[in-house]
Amino acid sequence: MKVSLFITCLIDQFFPEVGLSTVSVLRRLGAQVDFPAAQTCCGQPAFNSGFKTEARDLAKRFIAIFENSEYVVTPSGSCASMVKVFYPELFRKDPEWRTRAEELASRTFEFTQFLVNVVGVEDVGAAYEGKVALHQSCHLLRELNVRTETQRLLNSVRGIELVELEGAEVCCGFGGLFSIKYPHISGAILQDKIESVEKSGADVVVASDVGCLMHIAGGLSRQGSATRTMHIAELLAKGRET
Predict the structure, then answer these.
(1) How confident is the model over 137-151, as pLDDT tens digits?
(2) Is 21:237 a contact under the CB 8 Å cutoff?
């Protein structure tokens, strides 16, 4: 099994440990992992801002770099949905590029989606002692229809105590540009999430998108909370050296 790692801009710039953890888990499962060094942004910020010509240029570059990969895996529901859902839409009037986009989309997966639905594994040998709450990221739920995979992986972690997070499927208020364009609305949504986290009693909040985690971590920090955030790949990488 050969996997090409697709690393998002936020992970590349702010959370490289998430990329390393992703590689660690994939190699633990026997995957050969490569990292196409020419990769850049997938074009999601441009697409979400309405700059479809610029997004199309970045999508063409992305497709050319990854289209010979057996599988493309990214630890982000947001960027995975850009490739799987919105690339075909970007090229709906260009049959040649639409075909190339659809072929790549069929081989591109968010990390937990790949582990459970492609590799067929829920127990990756992870171990973690602590109270963990799961925040369900919007792109996984509403665009990739990934609903139970992250929970199933967490259920197999040795020593973990999963606690209920009220409103786990409710947005945290990040939404990329949304939090910049509408900071007051974003902040109000975040406050509800922070209150749910505090109520849960969790030591750690886990999610599959670093954008959500960065937003939640900022809110927790500003309120002096001891609760930390962690990407699912980091938690699954714990407990066994690879």
Answers:
(1) 999 999 999 989 999
(2) yes
